[in-house]
């Protein structure tokens, strides 16, 4: 039971203060992992935070994958055992020489040294795939945007940044679907927090309404007490509802509304930021950033809750 | 004391039969590491033996090194901590994703998976550099050819295989000398066996006489009993002498003569091979091979003694 040994080792390390806090952000291709991660890294500061992407553990490059019977979403297409080994090393405060997959060329290139830091954010297709990998994290997130939204995001990104044509992206999505179902989506079950960006029917109707988000807060970790924030007349921007997860487990669902005026959302953000107890400064501007000039207030709120967990776990 | 923990872990593994036998072959550039290794890998068979070179742990590529104040022989020019980590993982039966340095281009490229096997041979500039690295090995060798011989070998190889001009190689040797003295040669002290190829004065005079070899057999491991081999009238090809090492430690020195007729040397090889107890076949042809059509009988004898140690440690 290497996962148990690891948990014991890490519990020991915690006392000595050398143990990094680790956050997993799992999700399918173009589910928003990089955007979520970027804001968190900037808010925490690069001097105490390092992030890495598990796509770097691809076993085959793009050219090699063309003649293989599976896509990059299949565990056999990735060095899963090495990914686990590296997560385990980082979790116990050791450096790794991480492989590098270059998304712009589809090539595997020169590896790079990753030194552990106070906070380590690991995003990718597989961080919650195995028991041993999951044992390395303090907080785990699964990104589960509405499938129509994810397809839109994927077409946009892959045509702009990775040199594909739209019909190539759609064909690739179809090929990937069975592996996405078999290997990626089941990781949702293991996340402490599931983040779902989706329009709310009836409320987000006018095109251009900012997307809302639904956060499943599973009782697998201790979530912040939001009662004060929610009672301060801010429940139009956000409200909490006791529900059952699709598998029947009790869960809190936090609804964050994209359609409310920005000021109301900013007031919620201010209140959460104050509750984190990072005193001197205002809410970091980097939170909620989608790209140059584009923002999402529900994203900012999701990031603030994750910051709470990271700083609380330290 | 991670080296102690490792020794304890490995001793435990030994009982369960999953523990690879590891041989280190350390030595300066062009000291004959690759040639020695190649014969051993072939004799053991690729199905049960894997070899790797620690040059792959270079931190900088050739172009980057040009503007640095040290050469590849400096520990700061290598990922020493990662090398130790990988040796430790292999020693405990785990795979690694090894970096790759391409000597023909001087570039760092896509890493490759190395799965542990029954025998792991690690050759390079640094395998005996640190206490933790040394703790990973069952048998350790340092190659210490006569410096004139090594220079000759280096010029030959680097001009033929790595695209350098002779004067470039000689200039590089001069630049490297202080780091060779500071970081590479001290590893000789930690080897169980020191292999020195050198002409014997007075006996190897006619040009073209095959090089003799001197093997320092330190009592840090149990060496095979050669008395029977040496008494069978074969002591013209090889003889053993009790001496003191340069630091005063008692040591056996095995002199293997290059100038004796090949048949006498082959008889010694046959006797050692029989003593190893690999019954069915004759001495493997790959032993002693220097390249296409070129052989060294003293090399073959050195390799046979190492095979004895590897098979004995299993």
Provide structural commentary.
The structure is a homodimer of 314-residue chains. The first copy, chain A, is an alpha/beta fold and 314 residues long. Chain A folds into 2 domains: 142 residues, Rossmann fold, CATH 3.40.50; 123 residues, no CATH class. Chain A contains 10 helices and 12 strands. An 8-stranded mixed β-sheet of chain A has the order 2-5-1-6-7-8-10-9, with helices on one face. Chain A is globular and about 55 Å long. The mean pLDDT of chain A is 89. Chains A, B: This is phosphoribulokinase.
Keywords:
homodimer, 314 residues, alpha/beta, Rossmann fold, two-stranded antiparallel sheet, 10 helices, 12 strands, 38% helix
Main sheet record of chain A: 8 strands, mixed
Which chains share the greatest interface? A-B, 18 and 18 residues
Number of strands of chain A: 12
Shape of chain A: globular
Overall average pLDDT of chain A: 89
Radius of gyration computed on alpha carbons of chain A: 19 Å
CATH class of the largest domain in chain A: Alpha Beta
Estimate the strand proportion of chain A. Answer: 15-25%
> What is the CATH fold-level name of the largest domain in chain A?
Rossmann fold
| SSE string of chain A, helices as H and strands as E | HEHEHHEEEHEHHEEHEEHEEH
- Superfamily (CATH H level) name of the largest domain in chain A: P-loop containing nucleotide triphosphate hydrolases
Query: Total number of helical segments of chain A?
Result: 10
Q: How many angstroms does the end-to-end distance of chain A come to? A: 26 Å
Pfam family, one (chains A, B): PRK
Domain Phosphoribulokinase/uridine kinase (chains A, B): 23-199
Protein name (chains A, B): phosphoribulokinase
Family (chains A, B): Belongs to the phosphoribulokinase family.
């Amino acid at each position: 039971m290497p996962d148990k040994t690891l948990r014991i080792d890490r519990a020991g390390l915690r006392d000595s203060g050398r143990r990094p806090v680790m956050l997993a952000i799992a999700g399918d291709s173009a589910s928003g992992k990089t955007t979520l991660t970027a804001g968190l890294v900037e808010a925490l500061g690069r001097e105490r935070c390092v992030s890495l992407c598990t796509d770097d553990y691809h076993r085959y490059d793009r050219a090699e994958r063309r003649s293989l019977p599976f896509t990059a979403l299949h565990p056999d297409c990735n060095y899963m055992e090495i990914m686990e080994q590296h997560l385990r090393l980082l979790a116990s405060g050791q450096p790794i020489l991480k492989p590098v997959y270059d998304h712009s060329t589809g090539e595997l290139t020169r590896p790079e040294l990753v030194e552990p830091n106070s906070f380590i954010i690991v995003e990718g297709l597989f961080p919650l795939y195995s028991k041993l990998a999951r044992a390395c994290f303090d907080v785990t997130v699964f990104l589960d945007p509405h499938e129509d939204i994810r397809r839109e995001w994927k077409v946009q990104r892959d045509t702009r940044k990775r040199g594909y044509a739209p019909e190539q992206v759609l064909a690739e999505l179809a090929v990937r679907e069975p592996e996405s179902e078999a290997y990626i989506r089941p990781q949702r079950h293991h996340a402490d927090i599931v983040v779902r960006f989706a329009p709310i029917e009836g409320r987000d109707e006018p095109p251009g309404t900012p997307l809302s988000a639904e956060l499943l807060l599973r009782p697998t970790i201790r979530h912040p007490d939001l009662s004060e924030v929610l009672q301060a007349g801010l429940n139009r921007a956000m409200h909490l509802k006791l529900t059952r997860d699709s598998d029947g487990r009790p869960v809190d669902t936090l609804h964050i509304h994209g359609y409310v005026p920005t000021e109301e959302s900013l007031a919620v953000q201010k209140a959460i930021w104050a509750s984190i107890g990072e005193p001197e400064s205002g809410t970091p501007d980097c939170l909620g950033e989608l790209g140059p000039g584009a923002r999402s207030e529900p994203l900012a709120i999701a990031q603030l809750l994750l910051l709470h967990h990271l700083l609380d776990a330290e």
